[in-house]
Amino acid sequence: MPPSPSVIKLFVFLLLTGVTVLLAPTLASADLMLYPTRIVLEKNERASQLELINNGKETVTYRIGLVNYRMSETGEIATVDSPAPGEQFADKMLRFSPRQVTLPPGASQTIRIMVRKPAGLPAGEYRSHLKIERLPDPKGQSSIETQKPTGENEIGVVLTPLIGASIPVIVRNGETAATVALSNLELEKPEEGQGPVLSMQMERKGNRSVFGDFTVGFTPAGGAEKIIAQINGVAVYTPNPLRRVKIALQPESGLVLAHGKVRVTYHERPEADGKQLAEAVLQLP
Questions:
Q1: Is the Cβ–Cβ distance between 35 and 51 less than 8 Å?
Q2: Nearest in space to 232 (alpha carbons), one of 33, 14, 34, 48
Q3: Can you give the pLDDT at residue 191?
Q4: How far apart are CA 125 and CA 170, in angstroms?
């Protein structure tokens, strides 16, 4: 099945989306496209699939594997070797195929993912990440050993960045639920040459993660609300109870953020019914 119009280039999804860019000093060089960018297996679902697309101009080989990540309070992602208290990874119950693919320009490959839940698995959410790494071409320009003369009697080495990505694969078992609240809203003073920034905390409770979109509106005294920021795909993974978020605001020219209120809403993604998960208001003098 061809990818839907909602296929989005990988480099648009930074840490806020739950998609991690690997070894990518320049995001503009990313030619890898993925659909979907998040996989959730719940209830009786036993299989899913990921569409891997080479949107570049060269034939590329990708290696696929599983990795476990931990999210910090600021949304940063780091690899972990063993779970901390409360962390539940899914790697031992996940199977996928193929593990390596070579794609000519414009070609795609379906990665099939299956889950086998062990008997007596406690209720809750289990998460690992499917990592897709671009391998160097030993004969082409993507080789890290490509030599290039820099002058007479000189040898240079060309280092070409290798692009990859990882997406969360979430397995839910039994009854799972979560709530999220927004707190500690603060309008930070903008740095020189920068716009205003709204900081807040996301407080998560329950045995599953939350994932959704932010909308920020400002209502001046006696006026109508105007949308001043929208951020999509913000997650708080289990077992984290807290995530600190900063949102760059973009008020229209001439709109002064004073004598009114800032309203923040957090909704599930449209494909998950778009239900409102949290709301908070900051009064500005």
A1: yes
A2: 14
A3: 77
A4: 7
